[in-house]
Structure formats: structure tokens, C-alpha cells
Amino acid sequence: MAEKAQYEELVRQFSAFGAVKRELGRIMPAECPGGSAAVLTLLGRHGDMRMSKLAELLAVDMSVTSRHVAHVVDRGWIERSPDPADKRSRILRLTPAGHAQLDELSRRTTEVLAERLSDWTDEEVGRLTDLMTRLRQSFDCRPGTRAAPAAFDQTTRTPAST
């Protein structure tokens, strides 16, 4: 197990990573805020799905998911159609315009990452991807998948969450 100081430094790096996320957010089209980009990305990755599944994947409340979906529907990037198995539910599906928007988002983020990581080796980029994947799996917080970890003891100067 890592030393306490390593975890404290990791927390500081997480805070600094917010700057990376903000910069990636600034390159997104004004009409496609982060929540909308997340909806498009998840539909692109997982295919058609119910709103409840999307809320689970986003790890946010259904009301937040509904607002994101409404924004994306208003722009014609996704459509809602009745679920054949349950007419009360809707299936969310990317439209051709949604696929085009998702391609544009991918192009922009890929260009920025390629520019900013141009002095990294392929191995370093791969290692970062692998470690971030593993970190995300360790924090899998979908309902029923993992218990919340206990906070650090009282002697820790760094808060358990930021």
C-alpha cells in the first residue's frame, strides 16, 4: 500500500487535473456544454438506451439527465422514441446530426491531446490510459457496485474528497 504522503500528492494532482478538464471544455462548441457532450459520448459508445440507463452511466440524478437530454434533443442530436417493451419509457438514439456532432467533439479533443502530449511516447500515452482506466474502475460508483471508502483518519491534512 502506498504511503500517506503519496495519497496526499495524488489528491493535489487530482485538483490540478481540473485545469486540464477546463481547457478541454473550452475547446467544445458553445452549443455543446459538458453534459451534452457526455450524453453524446455515452450514446456513441453504448448505443441506444433508456433514460434510466443513461442516468446510471452519467452517475447523476434523473432530473439532471433529463435536462441534458432535453438540450441535446432541442439541437436535433438525439431522438426519443417509444420503447417497444414499455410504451411509458423512451429509447434515446443518436441522429445523423448527433453522430456528426460527436465526430466534431472527438476531432477537437484528439487534436488538443495530440498537441499537448506531442512530447510523450506512445508507451507513455498508453500507460496513462491504462492507469486512468484502472483508477476509474477502482472508483466505480454506479448504484450497488461498490461501497464508499472510509475517509482518511483525523490526522490527515488532506480531505478525502475535493
Can you walk through the features of this model?
- The chain is mostly helical.
- The protein has one domain (14-138): Arc Repressor Mutant, subunit A (Orthogonal Bundle), CATH 1.10.10.
- The protein contains six helices and three strands.
- It has helices at 4-26, 34-46, 51-58, 62-74, 96-116, 122-138, and strands at 49-50, 78-83, 86-94.
- Helix 2 (34-46) crosses helix 4 (62-74) and helix 3 (51-58) crosses helix 4.
- The longest helix is centred in the first third of the chain and has 23 residues, at 4-26.
- Residues 1-137 form the HTH marR-type domain.
- Residues 153-162 have a biased composition (Polar residues).
Question: Short summary of the structure?
Answer:
The protein has 162 residues and is mainly alpha-helical. The protein has helices at residues 4-26, 34-46, 51-58, 62-74, 96-116, 122-138, and strands at 49-50, 78-83, 86-94. The chain has six helices and three strands, in the order H-H-E-H-H-E-E-H-H.
Quick tags:
3-stranded antiparallel sheet; Arc Repressor Mutant, subunit A; mainly alpha; disordered C terminus; 6 helices
Which radius of gyration do the C-alpha atoms yield? 19 Å
Shape: globular
Low-confidence stretches: 146-162
**How much β-strand is present in the residues?**
5-15%
Domain HTH marR-type: 1-137
Biased composition (Polar residues): 153-162
Protein name: MarR family transcriptional regulator
Region (Disordered): 143-162
